[in-house]
Predict the structure.
Amino acid sequence: GAGVSQSPRYKVAKRGQDVALRCDPISGHVSLFWYQQALGQGPEFLTYFQNEAQLDKSGLPSDRFFAERPEGSVSTLKIQRTQQEDSAVYLCASSSGQVKGSPLHFGNGTRLTVT
Amino acid sequence: TQLLEQSPQFLSIQEGENLTVYCNSSSVFSSLQWYRQEPGEGPVLLVTVVTGGEVKKLKRLTFQFGDARKDSSLHITAAQPGDTGLYLCAGVDWPGGGADGLTFGKGTHLIIQP
């Protein structure tokens, strides 16, 4: 596709439910990132993939968060047993370069609200 | 992780005025990127600055990277309502800092009133 696509755009979950957020990166982009953005704040790094390999997951806030990119293309961020503090916009970004600092192309995010 | 502080946090000015927003750190970055984010959308890259002292212009926007590569500024001339948005700076860690390599500031919320 022309850009990074994320689905769903909005998700409301009851506390304790599991959710899965999908990211379709730009075709051919090697690098894929997940960020969490709280209201009025900048994006906070969650995890990074190079092709199908998850090279850095140091930003995942707890073991309830899990991300995968099994074929090196589409990625899914899963949150188990959601809590209210998980409410945020989850942004996915992809990059063509393997060099640190390559410009990121962001999707429009999934807004998760946990009630 | 190296912290990037952006100031001011919020800025509301009238159309036609000039403004400058700042991005500061106590640490050195190998390069720095500026993004603009509009409500309901993801950040969009405006510019990357690499060399200390570098100045880049994008129409009415002027970006400067500090000589020591620890800070940057964005100056907007004759602001227009279309400039409204959240301006984010993002530094590339030097030399390490994790695979992602990008540290984002919390952003400056800019509102240009017609």
